[in-house]
Amino acid sequence: MLEMRPQCERCNTALPAQDSGAFICSFECSFCANCAEELDDRCPNCGGELMDRPTRSSQLQEKYPPGTQASFGK
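RE: above sequence
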């Protein structure tokens, strides 16, 4: 299950689990759409491809809460 990290690790923009616009690599480093574009869709930590992160509905967040920790690169 994805951690759904709460903010962009580059600019600290909030990335709510229920909203679109977040991008992740295979290690779940998390970036906002603006930063992902500036990074040419490449993770600066591992060099992996940044992909759209799926959203998690509010109903499922109660049972499976999103993460509270920032990405490991911070």
